[in-house]
From TrEMBL:
The keyword Hydrolase does not apply. This is Transcription elongation factor GreB. The lineage of its organism: Bacteria, Pseudomonadati, Bacteroidota, Cytophagia, Cytophagales. GO terms for biological process: DNA-templated transcription elongation; regulation of DNA-templated transcription elongation. Keywords: DNA-binding, Elongation factor, Protein biosynthesis, Transcription, Transcription regulation. Residues 94-169 form the Transcription elongation factor GreA/GreB C-terminal domain. The gene is greB. Belongs to the GreA/GreB family. GreB subfamily. It comes from the Bacteria. PROSITE patterns: GREAB_1, GREAB_2. GO terms for molecular function: DNA binding; RNA polymerase binding; translation elongation factor activity. SUPFAM superfamilies: FKBP-like (SSF54534), GreA transcript cleavage protein, N-terminal domain (SSF46557).
Length: 171
């Protein structure tokens, strides 16, 4: 059996605690679905499988107990996150500058590349291939820049120069 590592000994991750209102709503919906739909269903399956007798070779019991632990861990994590997040709404004074929640279109002339993505919090990245983290080198380099600005993004592969083509916000 694995020991649970005390949270106080785990390394602290330097992630921003910001989230868009859409991202916050998705996390709340995930929490509610896990707590009100999935957890009761899995709990019923565990109860049923346990009632069959010998649990040592009961695959239904072991699988659903594992799934129940996963659900409980995710629910605990979501409860903690939901309390800690700071929801960032669009404000008109953000117009024209790259800030949290912005859709940014950029171009690299040298490599012939063009990208469009949204700058969001870490928890919003899952399942969204056109989102980047607020904590990424690209996002940090783009913050507070305007259309037409050239930005140098430092990576392990070298420095890349990007020009900002367009900045939009969901309102």
């Amino acid at each position: 059996m694995r020991r649970k590592i005390p949270e106080s000994t785990l390394p602290k991750l330097n992630r921003s605690q910001m989230i868009t209102s859409e991202g916050f709503q998705k996390l709340k919906e995930e929490h509610d679905h896990l707590w009100r739909v999935e957890r009761p269903d899995v709990t019923a399956k565990v109860t049923w499988a346990a009632s069959l007798g010998d649990r040592s070779e009961n695959a239904d019991y072991h699988y659903n107990k594992k799934r129940l632990r996963e659900i409980d861990n995710r629910v605990r994590y979501l409860r903690k996150c939901i309390d800690d997040f700071k929801i960032i709404e669009y404000h008109p004074n953000q117009a024209g500058k790259v800030n949290f929640g912005a859709w940014v279109e950029i171009k690299n002339e040298e490599k012939g590349l063009q990208n469009r993505f949204r700058i969001v919090g870490y928890e919003e990245l899952i399942g969204n291939k056109d989102y980047i983290s607020m904590d990424s080198p690209m996002a940090k380099a783009l913050l507070d820049k305007t259309v037409g600005d050239e930005v140098i993004v430092k990576t392990k592969m070298g420095d890349f120069v990007w020009e900002i083509l367009k900045i939009e916000y969901q309102k």
